[in-house]
Design brief:
Bound molecules: zinc ion
Strand content: 15-25%
CATH topology of the largest domain: Metallo-beta-lactamase, Chain A
Number of domains: 2
Number of helices: 8
CATH architecture of the largest domain: 4-Layer Sandwich
Helix content: 25-40%
Number of strands: 20
Order of helices and strands: EEEEHEHEEEEEEHEHEHEHEEEEHEHE
Length: 328
């Protein structure tokens, strides 16, 4: 097994001299697993110096919508399950439940060695398929054993119930990162919430792109449109905005969605603000479960995008007897 797989100083997973995932190396094709900023570092450099930028169609369109400047001929959309032959390996995307468009990357070398980079995910073994591998590359986002959320299995229901109850009193404002907003819009519709959605311009464009790719969201409006103004006069709506956007402070209940809370699923911050511990990431237990079930020969833990990476590696080594290294 040729183990020439490195993780560079900004978290890029370098596969032989074939490609780099979620990082930059001059002249190598770049694979982007999803649009979050910790996975798109030095993207403008890649736009200039990489021969191709490879991602799912949603990820590539979202990158452009969020302001990335990449020329059309460099974009290489790859659908889930479709194979792409690169110099030393075959690449394929598999789904991951995180934000829309997120892909796990499976690379099969000529000698049959299978490398998997999970990217960000939650609900392993359910909505995120666990992929067997020889070499598993994983970001231990919640790598310390204390990062456990006992309420992860029912946080979707808690969030939907909270929104329902709040809507009975007035509008509700949900503040979250790009991608999480669209995931939550989908979740609320699936849980039977049919109040109109009001979106700020970027969130609106991202939602439009999803619709083009077959997502059904229904009843969502751009905040500045006449329809939105009319809806807002009724006081019955869910307003979605990017986390930390200033100036969105209308009358109603405000909710910040954050994964960095392990004790209380729903917490009151002050008379108008609440925090709900809705995360896009598996907690410590979810990460361990993925590794156990994937049965890799070696695990490479990406220290750049990990919290508690060292604890995670020593847990895998000592408690599970799985060979694991923290890189770089
Ligand atoms: Zn992410």
């Amino acid at each position: 097994m040729n183990l020439d797989i490195k993780i560079n100083d900004h978290g890029g997973v370098v596969l032989w001299s074939t490609a780099v995932i979620d990082g930059h190396v001059d002249d190598l094709p770049r694979i982007v697993t999803h649009v979050h900023s910790d996975h798109t570092k030095y993207l403008s450099r890649s736009a200039r110096k990489s021969p191709h930028i490879i991602g799912t169609p949603i990820t590539l369109e979202w990158l452009l919508a969020l302001g990335a400047k990449i020329s059309e001929e460099k974009l290489r959309p790859l659908n889930f399950g479709e194979a792409l032959q690169l110099t030393d390996c075959n690449v394929e995307f598999r789904r991951a439940l995180h934000i829309p468009g997120t892909a796990q990357v499976v690379c099969e070398a000529r000698d049959g060695t299978r490398v998997v980079y999970t990217s960000d995910f939650k609900k392993p073994g359910k909505e995120t398929p666990i992929i067997n591998s020889d070499v598993l590359v994983i970001d231990a986002v919640y790598g310390d054993p204390s990062y456990r959320r006992f309420f992860d299995d029912y946080i979707d229901i808690l969030l939907a119930d909270f929104v329902k109850e709040s809507l009975a009193k007035g509008p509700i404002y949900i503040h979250a990162y790009y991608g999480k907003v669209q995931e939550v819009m989908n979740l609320l519709r699936n849980k039977g919430i049919d109040a109109p959605f009001i979106l700020d311009p970027k969130q609106y464009i991202l939602a439009k792109i999803l619709e083009k790719h077959g997502w059904v969201i229904k009843d969502y409006f751009l905040n500045t449109s006449d329809e939105a103004q009319e809806v807002m006069r009724t006081g019955w709506y869910v307003y979605f905005t990017h986390l930390f956007r200033k100036g969105v402070n209308g009358f109603g209940t405000h909710v910040r969605l954050s994964g960095w809370e392990f004790r209380t699923p729903i917490k009151r911050v002050n008379h108008r603000w609440w925090q709900i511990a809705f995360s896009d990431h598996a907690d410590f237990e979810g990460l361990v479960y993925y590794v156990k079930m994937a049965k890799p020969k070696v695990v490479l833990v990406n220290s750049v995008r990990s919290t508690g990476g060292y604890s995670f590696v020593s847990y895998l080594n000592k408690k599970l007897g799985i060979r694991a290294y923290l890189l770089p």
